[in-house]
Design goal:
It is a single chain. The protein is α/β, with parallel strands linked by helices. The protein has 2 domains: 3-52 and 300-390, Aspartate Aminotransferase, domain 1, CATH 3.90.1150; 60-297, Aspartate Aminotransferase, domain 2, CATH 3.40.640.10. Helices cover 39% and strands 19% of the residues. The strands form 4 sheets. The chain has a 7-stranded mixed beta sheet with strand order 4-12-11-10-7-5-6, sandwiched between helices. The longest helix is centred in the last third of the chain and has 21 residues, at 300-320. The chain is globular. Bound molecules: pyridoxal-5'-phosphate (PLP). Pyridoxal-5'-phosphate binds at residues 104-106, 109, 138-141, 189, 193-194, 222, 224-225, 250-251, 260.
Length: 393
C-alpha cells in the first residue's frame, strides 16, 4: 500500500479531525523512522512527546510482549502487579504519596480537578469549586479540560462548557485579582507546551505555591508534557523547588502505549474513596509494564543527559544563524524555536517533515520533543536536515 492509497482510505473512512503531514510511517528504531516507501526520517517529535525512549527500544518491546502474553487486562475489580510496581516507583522517585492511573492527559487532568473539588467540598462544603488556570495554557480536549484551557480558540462550538474555571496571567498580582472565596485550586503547566514552550518564572511558581498553602488551595501541576524526564528531571516540579498537591502525567509515561494518571501528596491521598472515581482501562497491565520499562531505561544518568542534549541542540540551532529562525526556549528536550517575521511556523514545519525531520509547531513557533534516548548521531543527522532545508530561503 502506498501513500496515495492510505490517504484515500483516510478520506473515505476517517473523521477528518486532523491535518496530517503527507507521510505514512511504518516502522523504526530509536529516533530513526521509515515510511511505507522505506524513506528515512529523524524523529524530533516523538509522537508529540510520547515516544520517550524512542521507537522499538528492545527492553520496552520485551516488557510489553511478556506482559501481553501473560495478562492483558483485569479491570480494577482485581489487583495486578504491574500498576503497583509502577505506582511504587513513581512515588519513590517523585516524593509524592500515591498514584491513580487512567489513559490520557485530559483524563488525568479531569482526575486532578476532581481531587481538588472533592478536597474542598469535604472540608468547606459547596461553593468552592473554582479552579484558576493560566492564559495560554493547554489542558486537554474534553469539555472540562477545554474549559480549563486558557486559550479562546478552544472555547468554540461545544457549548455549554463546564463551569468553575477562571483565568489569570502568570503573575501573583493577576492571580490575586482572579482569586475569590470560591477558589479551591490552581492548575498550571510549568512549561506551557502547546502554547509555545514558555517556562514559568521560578519565583512566580514558588510564590504561587506559598499562596496556595495560605489559602488552602490545591496546587495542581499538569505534567502531561513536561513529565517523565522531558525537562531534565523525572518531573519538572523537582526543578522548581515546589511540591504539587496533585501532579498529572501522560504522554511519555508508557513510551507509546496509552496511559495517563496523577500522583497526589500525603494531604490528598484519602480524597478519592471507593466509588468516587474510576477508569475501565486504568492501570492496564500491559501499559503499566511498558511504563515500568520506561522508568528502568530512564535512570538518573539518562535523565541527567536530557539537559545536556537539549543545550546541545539549542546551541547548534543558534550557531546556524538561519534567517527564518529566532531565539530558542525551553527546558531539557522540550524546545521551542521562534520563527522570524514573514515566515509561517506551519510551513517551515511541513517543509522539515517533508525533508526528513519530524518536528512540531507550538504557539507561533516550532517545537522539538525528540525521544529522550536520542543518540548523538541522530541529533547531528536531524540538525543537518534542518540546516540544509532552512538554508535555502
Ligand atoms: C497533550 C496535553 C494534554 C492532553 O493530553 P491527551 O492525552 O491528548 O488528552 C494535557 N495537558 C498538556 C500539558 C498536554 O501537553
Amino acid at each position: 500500500m502506498d501513500l496515495e492509497q492510505v490517504q484515500q482510505l483516510d478520506r473515505q473512512y476517517g473523521v477528518q479531525a486532523y491535518s496530517r503531514n503527507p507521510i505514512a510511517l511504518d516502522h523504526g528504531q530509536g529516533a530513526t523512522l521509515y515510511d511505507l516507501g522505506g524513506r528515512r526520517y529523524i524523529d524530533f517529535a516523538a509522537g508529540i512527546g510520547v515516544l520517550s525512549v524512542g521507537t522499538a527500544h528492545p527492553r520496552w518491546v520485551a516488557a510489553v510482549t511478556e506482559q501481553a502474553g501473560k495478562l492483558a487486562h483485569s479491570s480494577n475489580l482485581y489487583y495486578t502487579r504491574p500498576y503497583l510496581d509502577l505506582a511504587q516507583r513513581l512515588c519513590q522517585r517523585s516524593g509524592l504519596a500515591a498514584a491513580f492511573f487512567g489513559n490520557s492527559g485530559a483524563e488525568a487532568n479531569e482526575g486532578a480537578i476532581k481531587v481538588a473539588r472533592k478536597y474542598s467540598f469535604d472540608k468547606y462544603g459547596a461553593g468552592r469549586g473554582t479552579v484558576l488556570t493560566l492564559n495560554n495554557s493547554f489542558h486537554g480536549r474534553t469539555i472540562t479540560t477545554l474549559a480549563a484551557t486558557g486559550q479562546d480558540a478552544f472555547h468554540q462550538y461545544f457549548f455549554p462548557f463546564t463551569e468553575g474555571f477562571r483565568r489569570a496571567e502568570p503573575t501573583l498580582d493577576s492571580i490575586q485579582e482572579a482569586a475569590g472565596h470560591d477558589v479551591c485550586a490552581v492548575l498550571v503547566e510549568l512549561v506551557q507546551g502547546e502554547g509555545g514552550v514558555y517556562p514559568l518564572d521560578r519565583a512566580f511558581v514558588q510564590a504561587l505555591a506559598q499562596l496556595c498553602r495560605e489559602r488552602d488551595w490545591l496546587l495542581l501541576v499538569d505534567e502531561v508534557q513536561t513529565g517523565v524526564g522531558r525537562t531534565g528531571s523525572l518531573f519538572c516540579f523537582q526543578q522548581y523547588g515546589v511540591e504539587p498537591d496533585v501532579c498529572s502525567f501522560a504522554k511519555g509515561v508508557a513510551g507509546g502505549l496509552p496511559m495517563g494518571g496523577f500522583l497526589v501528596n500525603e494531604k490528598c491521598r484519602q480524597v478519592l474513596g471507593p466509588g468516587t472515581h474510576g477508569s475501565t482501562f486504568g492501570g492496564n497491565p500491559v501499559c503499566a509494564a511498558a511504563a515500568c520499562a520506561v522508568l528502568d531505561i530512564l535512570d538518573d544518568q539518562t535523565i541527567a543527559q536530557v539537559g545536556e542534549k537539549g543545550a546541545y541542540l539549542r546551541g547548534k540551532i543558534g550557531e546556524m544563524g538561519l534567517p527564518c529562525l529566532g531565539e530558542t526556549r525551553g527546558m531539557g528536550l522540550m524546545i521551542g524555536i521562534e520563527v522570524a517575521q514573514g515566515y509561517s511556523n506551519k510551513q517551515l514545519c511541513a517543509r522539515l517533515n517533508q525533508a526528513g525531520l519530524l518536528c512540531l509547531t507550538a504557539g507561533a513557533g516550532l517545537r522539538l520533543l525528540p525521544p529522550l534516548t536520542i543518540t548523538q548521531e541522530e541529533m547531528d543527522q536531524g540538525l543537518a536536515v534542518l540546516k540544509q532545508e532552512l538554508s535555502s530561503n
